[in-house]
Amino acid sequence: MSHLNAIAISKGPGSYTGLRIGVSAAKGLSFALDIPLISVNTLQSFALSVSIEKGYKIPLLDARRMEVYSQVFSEKTKK
């Protein structure tokens, strides 16, 4: 634990209960270790993992019950 400089968490989208439990655990560790807590947008991190010259990136996550979480990103999406 002494080697940690920060803790990163997914801020969603995702299961509300799953996110809430994960964030609670991360906040507790962050507070106890006195290190920053960084939140990351899941869909944006997926989009930034692929580079394109033209067009759009549309990452999808299964939201269950025949629905998905999605977001549209262009090639100009910043890191």
What does this structure look like?
The chain is of the alpha+beta class. It is 32% helix and 27% strand. The protein has helices at 16-33, 42-48, and strands at residues 7-10, 37-40, 56-57, 60-64, 67-70, 73-74. Strands 1-2 form a two-stranded parallel sheet. It has a two-stranded antiparallel sheet with strand order 3-6. Strands 4-5 form a two-stranded antiparallel ribbon. Strand 4 (60-64) and strand 5 (67-70) form a beta hairpin. It is flat, with a radius of gyration of 15 Å. The two termini are 28 Å apart. The mean pLDDT is 88.
Structural class: alpha+beta
> How do the strands line up in the largest sheet?
1-2
Main β-sheet description: 2 strands, parallel
How many individual β-strands? 6
Q: Please give the count of helices.
A: 2
Strand content: 25-35%
Categorize the overall geometry. Answer: flat
What's the gyration radius in Å?
Answer: 15 Å
Residue share in helix: 25-40%
Short summary:
With 79 residues, the protein is an alpha+beta fold. Helix content is 32%, strand content 27%.
Outline the fold blueprint.
Layout: E1 7-10, H1 16-33, E2 37-40, H2 42-48, E3 56-57, E4 60-64, E5 67-70, E6 73-74
Parallel strand pairs: 1-2
Antiparallel strand pairs: 3-6, 4-5
